[in-house]
TrEMBL record:
The keyword DNA-binding applies. Residues 1-39 are annotated as: Disordered. The keyword Cell membrane does not apply. Residues 61-80 bind DNA. Residues 38-98 form the HTH tetR-type domain. This is TetR family transcriptional regulator.
Length: 216
């Protein structure tokens, strides 16, 4: 479907999206930062993530994304252009990598945890979790895996020194995804009531050992 279709009457937004791991969304309201809440960009991106990870690319339509987001298809075109351009944004992890990796190596473990948790709470969405839903798919959704590998895992490996850099980078990425899955599964549990600093106290040491390559 082309990006020029419009909806006469947009559907009400799906409130179940508040804790939907397919979009990386977490429980609560959805301020996406900046003026996204006012413009509808955040709702569109969450709906697009759900659509693209759940269904083959050819089956996803702008009207369907618009109905899920509670906006008109013309608003999606205004903000993102075409379906191809919207998918390219959904499949991009570059901005997440820039934030996650913006720390020196000796502080990176704690920074990774703090950045992930704070991003989830500020933007009400996990910056990495959508890659999980591309597993086992061979259509356009496989682009999420290749982008994640290039923009997250390989960039992380470049920051590491010593033996097994690629393996350690993969394990670090896996631990971050695992943390996101855990927080999403227990969205109203103890993790939701715990400060980012305390979560970093508990989770960062294991990540830092992988970053430094320490075996003791």
């Amino acid at each position: 479907m082309t990006g020029h279709a419009t909806d006469a009457a947009p559907a009400a937004p799906d409130r179940r999206a508040a804790s939907d791991p397919a979009s990386g969304a977490t429980a609560g309201p959805h301020p996406e930062g900046g003026d996204d809440a006012a413009t509808g960009r955040g709702a569109i991106l969450r709906a697009a993530r759900r659509a693209f990870v759940r269904r083959p690319y050819a089956e996803v339509t702008m009207r369907g994304i618009a109905a899920d987001a509670g906006v008109s298809a013309s608003l999606i075109v205004k903000h993102f252009g075409s379906k191809d351009q919207l998918f390219a944004i959904v499949a991009d992890f570059g901005a997440a990598a820039d934030e996650l990796l913006a720390a020196p190596a000796d502080e990176l473990g704690r920074h990774l945890v703090l950045t992930l948790v704070r991003s989830r709470r500020v933007h009400q969405a996990d910056p990495l979790l959508r890659v999980v839903f591309s597993l086992g798919n061979t259509d356009e959704r496989s682009l999420l895996r290749s982008r994640f590998r290039e923009q997250i895992t390989e960039r992380l490996a470049e920051l590491l020194t010593g033996a097994d850099r690629e393996l350690r980078a993969e394990l670090i990425a896996g631990q971050l995804i695992g943390l996101g899955v855990t927080l999403s599964l227990h969205s109203d549990g103890a993790g939701a009531r715990t400060s980012p600093e305390r979560l970093a106290d508990l989770c960062a040491p294991a990540l830092q050992r992988l970053i430094t390559g320490a075996t003791g």
